[in-house]
Amino acid sequence: MPAFAVTTTAHRYEATVERGVLRRLRDFLPAKHGKVFVVATDDVWALHGSAVATGLDGTDWHRLVFPGGEERKRLASVEAMADRMVELGGDRSSLVVAFGGGIVNDLGGFLAAIYMRGIPVIQIPTTLLSQVDAAVGGKTGANLVGGKNLIGSFHQPLAVLTDPDVLMTLPEREYRAGLFEVIKHGVIACEPLFRLMQNEQPRVMAREAGAVEQMVAESVRIKCEVVTADEKEMGLRKILNFGHTVGHAMEAETKYAHFLHGEAVGLGMIAATHLSRLAGRLSEAHSQEIIDVVNAYGPFPSTEPLRTENLMPRLVKDKKAIQGTVHFVLATGIGSTEVVAGLPAEMVREAIELTLA
Ligand SMILES: NC(=O)c1ccc[n+]([C@@H]2O[C@H](COP(=O)([O-])OP(=O)(O)OC[C@H]3O[C@@H](n4cnc5c(N)ncnc54)[C@H](O)[C@@H]3O)[C@@H](O)[C@H]2O)c1
Ligand SMILES: O=C(O)C(=O)C[C@@H](O)[C@H](O)[C@H](O)COP(=O)(O)O
Ligand SMILES: [Zn+2]
């Protein structure tokens, strides 16, 4: 099974994709460490916690319960877990294991980043979305009322441990949400991955082992390469945000309670694809292909609560905006992108209208 590496100036770690890897979690702990704090929701713990407990056998560990939900991806949740760590005797030798979907990966990573000014974290992703995306790359954080992930830190993990078998218990809506980030990786950097999503939908939807392995392995490879080249999103890493400028605005506009993140990214990619065509960067044919593949993995929750005029001002809150100028990641083909600043507001409005129509 493959292992991929992220190398930055300060860190090097591996993302290991291996069936049963949770049961040997101890192999990935540093030689010297104090208490281990496992952040997990009750549902994930009930389904797969015993593998992690086996993996931690012989270590001094505690579970920190996170109730789950994008609405609770807030600083208050991090503070509550940090308070609990203090109560349980956590110190600078402690370590966090973020065991769950992307929300747990982001919050658990953020907790580790700021607890006593920073302790290590091991990421164990259990949703498709977190295996193909959230657990790798070191972006951690929480939402503000004003926008998605507006507080946080880059905090690279010690290791990422991915067991594709845990995906078999994932509810179908959550599985489909993860597929949109896979399509994103195909559009921005990997035509064969895009063709898998386009031509092998029955295998993908059946969670056929070979299809899952290709989606996870190719996505993790792309993320590791991009993050190694540009850890702090000064340039290349922006491409991983394809579909997110409008997608994040949709999440915030509906108070993080209507769309799953992956669903918002799916709709955001449709908007970004219309925009790419309107801006003259993408052919009609490629634009139609991308929109068809995204729609094939629907349905999406109703877009009825969304209004273009309410989404437009939210775009400026995107972290890629600089002094009021929004930077859009546009597709220029299947597997290639360009970051473009200063597109006319009318063009952006039209792309969003076409998406909501
Ligand atoms: N840091 C990054 O690079 C990055 C990348 C992509 C997304 N994200 C973030 O990830 C979050 C979305 O993550 P998500 O889609 O994984 O949602 P999530 O974390 O809410 O998980 C989805 C649901 O599935 C449950 N679940 C998890 N694993 C399961 C399993 N194996 N079986 C059954 N149920 C399981 C969870 O408890 C939860 O209810 C968003 O907040 C997004 O901003 C971060
Ligand atoms: O890793 C990245 O870089 C990404 O942009 C991946 C995204 O899929 C992810 O949703 C990320 O959390 C978005 O980051 P943000 O900086 O736009 O909040
Ligand atoms: Zn995302």
TrEMBL record:
Under which main EC class is this enzyme filed? lyase
What does the record give as its pathway? Metabolic intermediate biosynthesis; chorismate biosynthesis; chorismate from D-erythrose 4-phosphate and phosphoenolpyruvate: step 2/7
Cofactor binding notes = Binds 1 divalent metal cation per subunit. Can use either Co(2+) or Zn(2+).
Q: Does the keyword Zinc-finger apply?
A: no
Keyword entries, A-Z: Amino-acid biosynthesis, Aromatic amino acid biosynthesis, Cobalt, Cytoplasm, Lyase, Metal-binding, NAD, Nucleotide-binding, Zinc
Q: Name one Pfam family in it.
A: DHQS_C
Annotated GO molecular function terms are: 3-dehydroquinate synthase activity; metal ion binding; nucleotide binding
Which cofactor is recorded for it? Co(2+); Zn(2+); NAD(+)
Give the reactions, separated by semicolons, that this protein catalyses: 7-phospho-2-dehydro-3-deoxy-D-arabino-heptonate = 3-dehydroquinate + phosphate
The chain positions of domain 3-dehydroquinate synthase N-terminal read 65-176
Entry binding sites for NAD(+): 126-127, 139, 148
A Gene Ontology cellular component where this protein is annotated is: cytoplasm
Domain 3-dehydroquinate synthase C-terminal, by residue range, is: 178-321
Under the heading InterPro entries, the entry gives: Dehydroquinate_synthase (IPR050071), DHQ_synth_AroB (IPR016037), DHQ_synth_fam (IPR030963), DHQS/DOIS_N (IPR030960), DHQS_C (IPR056179)
Tell me which Gene Ontology terms the entry assigns under biological process.
amino acid biosynthetic process; aromatic amino acid family biosynthetic process; chorismate biosynthetic process
Q: Where in the cell is it found?
A: Cytoplasm
Which parts of the sequence bind Zn(2+)? 181, 244, 261
Q: Give the record's family classification.
A: Belongs to the sugar phosphate cyclases superfamily. Dehydroquinate synthase family.
- What is this protein's function per UniProt? Catalyzes the conversion of 3-deoxy-D-arabino-heptulosonate 7-phosphate (DAHP) to dehydroquinate (DHQ).
Which HAMAP family does the UniProt entry name for this protein?
Answer: DHQ_synthase (MF_00110)
Q: Any idea what this protein is called?
A: 3-dehydroquinate synthase
